[in-house]
Amino acid sequence: MSKPLTFTLKEKIVHRLDLSVLTPDALEGKPLAKVKKIKIAVGKKRIDVDKLFVIEGDDTQNIIFKKSSDRFDNIGQGMSLGSIEVRGSAGDRLGHDMTGGEIRVKGDAGDWAGTGMKGGRIEIRKNAGRFLGGALPGQQHGQRGGIIHVFGHTADRTGDRMRRGMIVIEGNTGDYTGSRMIAGTIMICGQAGKNTGFGMKRGTIILTDQPQSIPATFNNCGTFELAFLKLIFNSLASSNRRLKELREYPSWVTRYAGDLGLDGKGELLVLK
Question: Could you name the CATH architecture of 68-271?
Fold first, then answer.
């Protein structure tokens, strides 16, 4: 019976590691002997993977990182299949450009998690850094598909330039969530930071709690019953207890249209 391919960090690291070469796609069909000799950049050097990790198992479609560090960058970059489990924290650009598969992080994630992702699912059990699902510097779009689920809080600029897909945050968000958003859906189950939706062109931001303020460039359109919210809540209910509670929410919302400084076709939906 095959066992997940497991990478256990041998000792604490000083340099950041680019782990984009350790994905189900990149390792598919490779025997363990070849996996151990894959080179990873460490500072100015490139060294064999087995110098950094104890490597066990043989199932390259199910990868586990143990004793993970916030210096582990680009986990799951470009992956299209399989699963990656991170037992600890992850560094920056988690799931960068992924098109399928699943990444589960039991700790925190760094900045730009899910940037450029087109499909698949990312689950972060604790908190996420800045620009979750957001665009990298010089890029036109952030998240372009798939689902990101954060059980904790997120820092500033969540969903910046988001193009498609869905982000669910069970905790609080930093400032400028959904900034310059082009399309897609963001749901915030905690308290939203300042200037949520600033500069958004289209897309939907769902707020289960009344925010401290609504940007002045959003227009109150009144109260509506939106049946599609029940479909979203039911689809999320299997994730955990907190999201199951959403089933009890009525589908009545106060709708704010904006950002009127741009096309004004986006919306903030505040649950009643």
Answer: 3 Solenoid (2.160)
